[in-house]
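User: two proteins, same treatment. go.

Assistant:
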Amino acid sequence: RDNRIVFATASFGNFSGSGLFQVSAAGGAVSPLTKLAPGESGHSFPTLLPDGDHFLYTGAQGAPPETGGIYLGSLNAKPDQQATRKLLPDASKTAYSPFIGAGAGSADGYVLFVRGSALMAQPWDSQRLELTGEAAPIAERVPSTGLSTSATG
């Protein structure tokens, strides 16, 4: 979005050994987007949100990397100014899926993630940038790195 590419380096599972980076889609210099906090072992799996500014990402903490969580970041924040509030305790790849038709309350889409081996969906409010309601399982036996969505089918 905004003609920027957000990526993690040489990721293996949930461990990348560094923060996330960004680069213009037209090319140019790569710049850091997130910075590891003490105790973190890597950031990975960035998922851009529809507002064009915010993204979700996985932060791994130590070993095993499954002890991390899912966090919210901003393309316009400096690496040391990114929010550090953990949205979910699951060290999983995430995906965003907009509602088709009417939403539930203030939510306008779902954040999808894997908990254990269950694919979960939790309502997301893009205006308040927060999860709402409870997470619900929607599929079983899904690997934590094996999910994606498409807005066009």
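Protein 2:
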Amino acid sequence: MEGILDVLNLGRTLVRIAGILIELSRLIKGPGEHIDVPAITCGAPA
């Protein structure tokens, strides 16, 4: 059972790290320079 819990905790940690990296990249790039967001919200072809 402990092995399964370790895998779940590792997955959660990776998700958390990925979220932090995404937030950092947004802060670094600044507003209005995201690649994915405008294409999704406006429906314009990338």
